[in-house]
């Protein structure tokens, strides 16, 4: 990987692929594209989630109000996750104020939106809206979303710490590293992937010991990866004794 100029005038990471049997090399560029738009008279660039102690789920919140949508669909929820910075994740949509009563943080306002997203848009303001939006509705009908990354913390009842597990090749499994000191950077990547700012503590997971699959063995990240699955790793010399814990 490196930095390459991808014409026209686009800069991003790249990977070079050699096509077997042919004297050809294909360079694939990874770039970020941002769309701008206005939905009705409001921009939704400052979209947030409230009502949950996990950063990747909650009620949709913008400009002092939550939203309700009688037609809130999985495609709409997928677009909201993309806009919130969680592309390519496991998405669940929620209705009826699933994350609890809407308190003073929303000013008591819940505004109706009727999105008709295809599921591929980069933000909700790029989706069409059905006629009848922008009216006030009951705050107990607020819509929400869970943008669950393919990484989770298990083993404790506290949502901000636990044994790292990732969904890889069709099933969940643990992450191990048989070197305490060299996992600090990887722990930071795991916390970023979960939606947190940084890691407070990391160590070997002690009890209860996990059983079953180890998804990623001897993970060692550089620190600029977007997910643990993109980090370097070895497939030997690791067991559940070395499963990793983060807080």
UniProtKB/TrEMBL annotation:
InterPro entries: Galactose-bd-like_sf (IPR008979), SRCR (IPR001190), SRCR-like_dom_sf (IPR036772). Disulfide bonds join 117-127, 221-231. Keywords: Disulfide bond. GO terms for cellular component: membrane. Pfam families: SRCR. It comes from the Eukaryota. This is Neurotrypsin. It comes from Paramuricea clavata (Red gorgonian). The lineage of its organism: Eukaryota, Metazoa, Cnidaria, Anthozoa, Octocorallia.
């Amino acid at each position: 990987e490196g930095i390459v100029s991808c014409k026209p005038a686009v800069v991003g990471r790249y990977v070079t692929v050699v096509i077997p049997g042919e004297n050809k090399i294909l360079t694939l560029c990874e770039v970020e594209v941002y769309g701008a738009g206005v939905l009705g008279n409001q921009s939704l660039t400052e979209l947030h989630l409230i009502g949950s102690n996990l950063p990747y789920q909650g009620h949709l919140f913008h400009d002092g109000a939550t939203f309700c949508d009688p037609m809130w669909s999985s495609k709409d929820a997928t677009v909201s996750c993309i806009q919130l910075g969680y592309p390519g994740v496991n998405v669940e949509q929620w209705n009826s104020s699933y994350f609890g009563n809407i308190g003073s943080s929303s000013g008591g306002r819940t505004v109706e939106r009727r999105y008709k997203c295809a599921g591929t848009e980069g933000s909700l303001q790029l989706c069409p809206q059905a006629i009848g939006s922008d009216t006030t509705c009951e705050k107990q009908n607020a819509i929400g979303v869970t943008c669950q990354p393919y990484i989770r913390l298990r083993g404790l009842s506290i949502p901000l710490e636990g044994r790292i597990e990732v969904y890889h090749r069709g099933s969940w499994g643990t992450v191990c590293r048989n070197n305490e000191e060299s996992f600090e950077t990887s722990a930071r990547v795991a916390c970023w992937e979960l939606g947190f700012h940084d890691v407070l503590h990391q160590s070997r997971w002690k009890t209860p010991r996990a059983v079953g699959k180890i998804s990623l063995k001897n993970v060692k990240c550089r620190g600029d990866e977007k997910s643990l699955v993109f980090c370097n790793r070895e497939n030997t010399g690791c067991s559940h004794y070395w499963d990793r814990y983060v807080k």
